[in-house]
Specification:
This is Nucleoside-diphosphate-sugar epimerase. InterPro entries: Epimerase_deHydtase, NAD(P)-bd_dom_sf. Helix content is 33%, strand content 16%. It has 294 residues and is an alpha/beta fold. The protein has one domain (2-293): Rossmann fold (3-Layer(aba) Sandwich). Helix 1 packs across helix 6, helix 2 packs parallel to helix 3 (92-112) and helix 3 (92-112) runs parallel beside helix 4. The two termini are 34 Å apart.
Length: 294
C-alpha cells in the first residue's frame, strides 16, 4: 500500500513505519522533522495547517513517481500518529489545540482526497487513570473498550475529542476509520534499560494499568488494521498479552484493585488492558513478551 504516515519521526512512529516498510508498504512520513529510518520518505509539514494537509494528501512521495507520467498517485491509507505526546511538554491549551485541530485537519483532508482507510492514534489515557490527580482505579477489570472515558487532563481530553471527531467523519463518509488506544510504548532497548527498575516495584506501573505495548507489535497492529476492511468506525486497545511486572495478575488484583469489579477470570500474567477485541476483529497477535526480551 501507498501510505501517508503522520508523526513517523516520533518514538512510536519510527518503529511502526519500519514495520510497515518490512511488510512491503511504501511510506511517506509527514512530520516537522524527517525520519532517520532507512527507506522512509519524508515531507515536512505541520498538522495544524489545514492547507498543508490537503496538499500532502495529493503529493508526490519521491521522484520515481514522476516516471509513469500519469499524475500524482493516490494514497491507499493514512496513519495519523502526529501529536503533542503527553502533558507537560507544552502548555495544556496548546496540547489540546494541536492534537484536536491536527486530527480534524488530517481526517478532513484525507477524506476529501478520496482516501477510504484512516488509522489514528488514541491513547490509554482516555480511561482517566494515567494522568489523574491522585489515584484513580478503573471501574472494572480487565479494562475493555466499553470502559468509560472520563479523563481530567488536556492530553487525554484531546484524545477523547479526536475519537468523537473520527466517529463523526466516519458517519458522514462511510470510510473505515480505526482508533488505536495505545498503551505505554516500549522500544526494544528499553527492556534492559527500564524494566529492572519496576518489574519488582509494581506501584510504578499503576498509572499504565500495569500494561505495555512493544513498539514492534504496535507496528503489527497498524498493519493488521490496514489489511482489515469494512469495520466502519472502531477503537481498539493496543497492549501486549501480559502485564509488565513480575507479580501475578491475581497478586496485583489483591494489592491494587480491592473492591474493583472483576468481570471474568484472568490468566496468571494476563494484562489488565485487554486486547481481545483487536485479536478478534483484525487478527492482532503480539509476539514480544518482556520475559523473553530481558
Amino acid at each position: 500500500m501507498r501510505i501517508l504516515f503522520t508523526g513517523g519521526s516520533g518514538k512510536a512512529g519510527r518503529h511502526a513505519t519500519r514495520y510497515l516498510l518490512d511488510q512491503g508498504h511504501r511510506v511517506l512520513n509527514l512530520d516537522r522533522t524527517p525520519s532517520d529510518v532507512p527507506g522512509i520518505l519524508n515531507r515536512i509539514a505541520d498538522i495544524t495547517d489545514l492547507g498543508a494537509m490537503h496538499d500532502a494528501m495529493q503529493a508526490w512521495a519521491d521522484f520515481d513517481e514522476l516516471e509513469p507520467g500519469t499524475g500524482v498517485p493516490a494514497f491507499d491509507a493514512v496513519v495519523h500518529f502526529a501529536a503533542v505526546p503527553r502533558i507537560m511538554v507544552t502548555g495544556d491549551a496548546e496540547c489540546f489545540r494541536v492534537n484536536t485541530l491536527g486530527t480534524y485537519n488530517v481526517i478532513d483532508a484525507a477524506l476529501k482526497a478520496g482516501i477510504r482507510k484512516i488509522i489514528f492514534a488514541s491513547s490509554e489515557t482516555t480511561y482517566g487513570v494515567c494522568f489523574a490527580n491522585g489515584e484513580r482505579k478503573p471501574e472494572y477489570i480487565p479494562v475493555d473498550e466499553a470502559h468509560p472515558t472520563e479523563p481530567e487532563d488536556s492530553y487525554a481530553m484531546s484524545k477523547v475529542v479526536n475519537e468523537a471527531t473520527a466517529r463523526s467523519f466516519q458517519r458522514r463518509s462511510g470510510a473505515d476509520i480505526y482508533g488505536l488506544r495505545i498503551n505505554n510504548v516500549i522500544e526494544p532497548h528499553e527492556y534492559a534499560q527500564n524494566f529492572p527498575g519496576f518489574i519488582n516495584a509494581p506501584e510504578k506501573r499503576r498509572r499504565n494499568i500495569f500494561a505495555y505495548i512493544d513498539a514492534r507489535d504496535l507496528g503489527q497492529m497498524v498493519d493488521c488494521c490496514l489489511r482489515t476492511d469494512g469495520l466502519g468506525y472502531e477503537v481498539f486497545n493496543v497492549a501486549n498479552d501480559t502485564h509488565s511486572v513480575a507479580a501475578t495478575t491475581q497478586e496485583l488484583t489483591r494489592r491494587f484493585y480491592q473492591g474493583v469489579e472483576q468481570r471474568r477470570e484472568m490468566g496468571e500474567h494476563e494484562t489488565f488492558y485487554t486486547n481481545e477485541k483487536a485479536k478478534r476483529l483484525v487478527g492482532f497477535s503480539p509476539r514480544h513478551d518482556w520475559r523473553s526480551e530481558i
